[in-house]
Amino acid sequence: MPAVMDSDGSTMMRSEPVSCATDSSPTETPVPASLQSSSGPSASDMQYYYQYLYPFKTVFQWLNHSPKPGRDMSHRELAMAFRSGAYKRYNSYATAQEFKTQIQRANPDRFEIGAVYNKPPKDRDSILKTEMKPLEKEIVFDIDMDDYDAYRTCCSGANVCSRCWKFISVAMRIINVALVEDFGFEDFIWVFSGRRGAHCWVSDVRARVLNDFQRRQLLDYMNVLRQRNADKRLNLKRPYHPHLARSLELLKPFFVDVILREQDPWQNDETAAQSLLSGFHDKQLIELLKKHWKSDPGRSSEDKWNDIDVVASQIKHTSSLKKQDFFIRLRECKEDLVMATLYPKLDVEVTKQTIHLLKAPFCIHPATGNVCVPITEGFKPSDAPKLFVLEQEMEANGNNVEATSLEPYLKQFSTFVNALMKKEIFSKKRNREDDQDLEF
């Protein structure tokens, strides 16, 4: 029986698939139909992945903020979703080995991460529910490709390519700048959702301890674009908040390259009339542009965008003051259109509540078979390792995880976690020293 080196670096004997039985502590409840999947990796594929490839030790340390078992993990809720449609909440694990053993035994399609409570969630059935209080959890942001469907033309539905993935990359850039420059956060990582989105996990202590009201305030600051309606003018307040003014400057070059040139969403004249011209305030300008495009149909989105200024310059005004006001409002409408097409729209529910659960990094997407890996510089969805490819790589390289396509992502995540733990240990040591100084 060949030895297998697993993703945590320990050697184990490859054995028969582990049992699918689960422990009986929390009650299983039906999972929403939207979360169920009838295709993708098989149960035996998932057993193999959990047994030999999933980085349980590193994920445990990331959630625990320390290599030594502690409250941040022993009191942390994890939920499991099964291909049967069951959804098992309020699991918690005191050690990395228990975490690994129980996930392997249950063999879920995926598992999700929740809050740290004042008591171990697995004891929930033996205490009063009112005694269970969520204490902290990472701040999480979720962005999804379906929010850009009105403007992406290269793909549709669940399909994602390197071109439309730029929408997600640009959104991540905007959020990163705000997290660092506006909130001073440093310890965050982006994780591929497995199909067409990305999740940001902010692990700074200041972020983790925010209550629900504070999380909503942070969300309101970031989530300026509540609805991305292509047929309605955004009409943001002026002057722009400094965060929006900065975001606009970051988005402008991407608007030209991604929206106007690559996606070209307004080449169709009817679509342009509905979703481009609806962003402007002046009826005369709108009618003149429609007439212009009717005489020269099928102009590209970039041509149409340039036409706006050309046609606007031909409109006569009764006074210089009205002319100045017209062009100020025209500029503002164009700025709002840049924001409407590219500024990130966040999933409100994911961020605003401490108790909200979200899929763990390195889970397998049940429909695509993709590993939900950390997002590296220049990442695109096709880069994500697939489970069936990893199984082939393991068989071909003598069962060495380090020789698989998963290894660069494991290394990146491990580097992030190690840096986070060092910072936490240093912070706790400094706090102890400060307390000692106060005693004197």
Automatic annotation (TrEMBL):
Keyword entries, A-Z: DNA replication, DNA-directed RNA polymerase, Metal-binding, Nucleotidyltransferase, Primosome, Transcription, Transferase, Zinc
Listed GO CC annotations: alpha DNA polymerase:primase complex
Region: Disordered, residue numbers: 1-41
Low complexity: compositionally biased ranges: 32-41
A Pfam short name: DNA_primase_S
Gene Ontology biological-process annotations: DNA replication, synthesis of primer
InterPro entries with a match to the protein in the record: DNA_primase_S (IPR002755), DNA_primase_ssu_euk/arc (IPR014052)
Highest taxon in the source lineage: Eukaryota
UniProt-listed Enzyme Commission number(s): 2.7.7.-
Family: Belongs to the eukaryotic-type primase small subunit family.
PANTHER family per record: DNA PRIMASE SMALL SUBUNIT
NCBIfam families cross-referenced by the UniProt entry: primase_sml
Protein name, as recorded: DNA primase
